Structures are given as C-alpha cells and as structure tokens.
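All the exercises in this workshop are built on plain-text protein records. The record below serves as our worked example for the rest of this section.
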Amino acid sequence: MDGNGADDVVSRRISMDTAQVSAVSAYYRRSSLVLSAVADDLATRDFGTWARDSGVPDGNSVAFGPLAAAYAGMSTALSRRLRVQAAAAAALADSLRNSALAMADGDGRAAVEIARALPASAKDVR
C-alpha cells in the first residue's frame, strides 16, 4: 500500500456523452406520455358491458355478470400498472436529464478553473 490505501485503485477517466443521455431521457419521457395516455384510455372505457346483457333472443338467461366484473377488474388493474410504469419512466427521464445537465455544467465550471490555473503562455487550446 502507498499509505493512501490506493495500491489497487486504477485511475480511470469518466466521460458522458450528454447528447446521447439527453436523447435516452427524451425516449423515456415519450414512453411515459404514451403509457399515461393508454392508462387514461383504459380508465375511460367501460369494459365488460357486452357481458352485462344476460338475456338472449330466445328468452333464456345467461349469467354474464361475473365475466363482466372480471373484464372491468382487468382493465382497472392494467390501467393502474401502466400508471406505475409511466411514473417510473418519467422519474428515469428526469434523473437522466438532470445527470446530463449536471455533468455538462460541471464540465463548464471545471474548464473555467483549469483555464485559470494554467499560466497564460501554457493555456490549453483544445
């Protein structure tokens, strides 16, 4: 060990393509909007209505009530799950976007500090 406990630590450069991260963030934002729209659409539909009419033309009655309730329950559960997925996609989009913005902002601040630290004749012109 070198006294700092860093003998096994290898220095590695960290980089982030902020444009690519922003594009992925936008994808998840759109996914969230689509999932929300589908959840809204499901929530406004009255699933199982076709099964509530228990009469048939010949006068015989069929008990479709439980089937109608099952379809209504499925649509409610699916809508709820889609809303959870939409919220997760939105949270991921926000996190990715904020990370890209923070990284770009940090790079900008670091560039200013590095420029200040270099002697005028040794300025890095990359």
Q: What stands out?
A: The chain is about 65% helix and 0% strand.
